[in-house]
Amino acid sequence: MNMLGLRGSYRNTKVTTRLTWIEEKILEKLLGNASLTLLYQSNVHKRCTLEMTKKCSLQGSTMTIVYLEQEVVGVFMLEDFPDKDSKKTSTCAWFSFERNKISSGISALVLNTLVKVNSTSLQMSSISGLTLIVYPSKEGLYLNEAVIKNLELNVKQSQYLECEIFRVDGIKNNPGFIKKMVTARQHRGKFLSTLRAYRPYADLVSEVRILLVGPVGSGKSSFVNSVKSSFQGRLTRQAIVGSDKSSITTQYKVYSIKDEKNKETLPFMLCDSMGLEDEKEAGLCTDDIPHILKGCVPDRYQFNPREPIKLKHFTYAASPPLKDRIHCVAFVLDINSVDTLSDKMVAKLKKIRKDVVDCGVGCVALLTNVSDYDEVLDNNLVNMTENMTSLNQVQNVRNMLNIPVANILMVSNYASERMLEPLKDVLIFAALQQMLRAADDALEDLPLEDTASDDGSFNNSSHIKNEGKLGEVKRREMS
Amino acid sequence: MKIAYLQFYPSVVAEFKQLAPSNSSPVERQDYLPIMLSSLGYTDHDAQIHSSPEGASFSVCSMEEALKGRTLFDQAWPLRWKLPSVAALGQNLRPDRFQNFKRTVLALPLDSSMAMRTRLTWEQEKYLRNYFGEKKFCLLYKASVQEFAGQNLLYKCQDQGPTMVVVYSEKYVIGVYLQEGFQENKVSTTLFTIQETGLSPCALGPCLPLSLFRYEETSDFFILLDKKTVTISSEIRKVLRLPSLSGDTFIQECEAFRCDELLDERKTRGIVGLCSNLLDALRNYKPYGDLVHQTRILLLGPIGAGKSSFVNSVKSVFKGSITHQASVGCDRNGISDKYRTYSIMSKNDSGPLPFVLCDSLGLSENEGLHTDDICHILKGHTPDRYQFDFRKPITPNHPNYIHDPLLKDRIHCVVFVFDINSFNQLSCELVAKIKQIRRDLIKHGILHLALLTHVDSLTWITKGDLLDIYSCNPVKVKLGVFHRLFGFALSDILVVSNYDSEWQLDPVKNMLILSALKEILYTANGFLEDLPLNK
Questions:
Q1: Where is the domain boundary, A144, A173, A202?
Q2: Engineering a disulfide at A208: which of A39, A248, A268, B274 sits with its beta carbon 3.0 to 4.6 angstroms away?
Q3: Is A436 inside a domain boundary?
């Protein structure tokens, strides 16, 4: 013991973690905005497993971190730290990062792990064959090949510099939650590359247009900002948001989305509209919707709640090409107010729904302000959970708008955050993906003559040659 | 002053959670309260969510009480719904309200962390920090979780450095602070109680830590965990301002904390690193699409809100030492009565930084900046050093009037600056005026943010809080009030602490100023990106 020489006088113990402040913050974020409390530190406390268990048992979830020369290896344990000479299985997150380079990435995986404490060592072994053993008295660390491979480490066995154990506060005691939090970043990357690779159906258009409609304050503009933020990798504000007596958004706005990586525009656009209000001559006119759907309304059109659009307003858009039309409509609703929508609002929404069907446009619902957004998707982040899809609100929306549950999407917009959260990004991307699928379905469903080539009198896109005809056909169908 | 405290069991919390987003700040949840509280007749209160081992609860109280983190337990008792077990739930509750009940409860396991969470209120922790210095109290032991056993307390606390043990009786919070922590030698020991009025200390002198936890006839103070009692001699009771009482006091809970420095070397190093990253990012900032060389930021706000101070603070951070170029004062007439645009030189002489801060006359009810002048400024007509006249706005006849402003002369982002301590005391006229200005901005598609200054002088806020200012209770409450008053989205409200009286730069303040500036500049980029292509 390094303290032996000081016996008889005051020991000035100072328990301070070796993690840098940034590393601590990033790890807390990785585990879902947890907070860390250092319980055991090998260079201050006795170097034996007994001391570890004395300090760390009955504390709830813990995180054991071992510092090597260049790297840091850690295991987060959801269950209580085991007592001396006992073992237990727990959901564990194994992770590693390079010292002082945590921002370049953390390798992490979530595994069911057997944790065992005997008189000389702390052993962790996962069912998939990863093994990590800490020998406190020898300050030794053993990692098997599988750990080194899976966590992309460079060392095999080594003396460690320090071993620390933290209590982890503020997380949900739920294996699924941990799994989602820890793997959210990886899934975010996957979704991102899928969306980057997306091409509209049969290349009929170069960009899919998604129209957002919904009551005032339901989060349409916030969703635009959230999507932009998720792709940019930082919080952005382009659409003005906030709250006031009436809708903040009064213009029709078309937003293209830029990719952080290659700065290119992505093959879809979000079209933001004025909020709907209960009263008749307030908010967006429902009569405007068919014109918007058909692509007659130009970007930055100033909505007038009292007077619907008359086609003669626009010289341009008599029969707009397919690329200018809306390909998918998202009904944006605040999940907390779905059940309390007024009859007038429901009637307006239903009317819009009918227009959407008439125009042959894809349709989804987007529920915002979902508080338990970490519970929307299952543990593998591929499907919505039954808990969420069977919510009253979801069923109500399904019945009200006749939208299949698979197309009732749930997100939590960035409205009060100061930082991005990978899991929120995942939900936003998943919602976008479903919207694009709905748009593709609608494009695929277009009558054949709509997609065949023609004179292309309105053509200003190299992809499509038939929009002039198409517009006319559609117009005839509707009149 | 109406105060209500409602305690809900997990089931009810589950239902409540459906109504209120869990990631929202306490104040946001206020919006959902009417649903829960309509039966009580409470309408206009602030709510806070507390988690405790029993589940969770939320309290409703007036603003002043919320700021102190205080709640009252004895009112609204009838509303306490006691739910014996999951099985019996169906019978106790109105089925229509609890249709989703079972599902939700299963989906919402209680936070494991609730078990190890201190019972100290925010206010009590503040008293402790005021007395013992800026400390972070790390909970190591909690008797209700780790058993009322002296042995367990010792296991957790031995060799942890400065340690504090707190016991809770029905009425009092009594604690003992061990300067050198639990070890085998005598350590300097301070007893204290925390009451409504604050902390009453009593120095015990050097003591063996262990002796405080065993029965000794001659001892003035000891805690017997196994018996759940604390014994205090009558002399010490007097010093601690406790009522004299013979015999032992029963305790409900005992907690032990390690007392870490809130702002130790490690954190300071981290913050200095973060600041230098931010500085680099801002020096390398490029206005969107290279449409302009410098983005122009207009600061608007009431007189004395700290507009010029913010300019000076930004200049100081980039210069590396405190500077006072923009004249500051809180003269009733708004000391900056000229329109000033400040370009900031970077330290290494590589020319001006890619942004300009524009300081204007303060807003007030009648005098102050003319609303029409704002319009001219936004469009870029107003020249630097223009002398404002609150009676009439600038006209095109003014000799320096900029007749054909370019994109570079226009304002790209507006920042509303307020003093966080006093924005809620502004007159209705001024609030209405500011709201109208905001509406005009929205109409013209100009992005805007709010910047609340003087956060360090907010009640209860001390320097250590600036580290994680957005998660501080009083700040959250204030942000919520501001959000409701002016309608800004919560993430559009920034807080800073300007350099007013300091002689030396401070990394924590730098961090706040730079992060705010970064948000402002990226918001300006959002505006530039949003411009129609033909401009």
A1: A173
A2: A268
A3: yes
Give the minimum alpha-carbon distance from B380 to chain A in angstroms, rounded to a whole number.
21
The verdict on a CB contact (< 8 Å) between B183 and A235 is no
Confidence of residue A11 (pLDDT cuts 50, 70, 90): low
Which A residues in the span 304-363 are in contact with B, Cβ-Cβ below 8 Å? 336
A394 and A353 inside one domain: yes
Alpha carbons B137 and B162: distance in angstroms, whole number: 10
- Interval A188-239: pLDDT, tens: 999 999 999 999 998 999 999 999 999 999 999 999 999 999 999 999 999 9
Long-range pairs of A261-267 with CB within 8 A, sequence gap ≥ 24: A261/A196, A265/A207, A266/A195, A266/A196, A266/A198, A266/A231, A267/A198, A267/A199, A267/A200, A267/A206, A267/A207, A267/A208
Residue showing tokens 């050198």: B180
* A149 and A199 in a common domain: no
Please tell me the total count of domains within chain A. 2
User: How far away is chain B from the Cα of A236, in angstroms, using its nearest Cα?
Assistant: 7
CA A297 to chain centre: 31
pLDDT digit string, tens, across residues A107-139:
999 999 999 999 999 999 999 999 999 999 999
Chain B neighbours among A 181-240 (CB < 8 Å)?
Answer: 222, 234-238, 240
Instruction: Judge if A157 and A193 occupy the same domain.
Output: no
Q: Determine whether the interchain pair B270/A20 forms a contact, defined as Cβ–Cβ distance below 8 Å.
A: yes
Q: Which of B99, B139, B270 sits opposite A392 (nearest CB)?
A: B99
Q: Which CATH superfamily is domain B296-530 in?
A: P-loop containing nucleotide triphosphate hydrolases (3.40.50.300)
Q: Which positions in chain B touch A174 (Cβ < 8 Å)? A: 109
Summarize pLDDT for A133-189 with one digit per residue, the tens: 999 999 999 999 999 999 999 886 689 999 999 999 988 888 999 999 999 999 999
Residues A313 and A388 in one domain: yes
Retrieve residue A36's tokens. Answer: 């860390």
| Domain hosting residue A112, numbered range | 17-173
Among the candidates A118, A151, A173, a domain finishes at A173
- How far is Cα B328 from Cα A100, in angstroms, rounded to an integer? 41
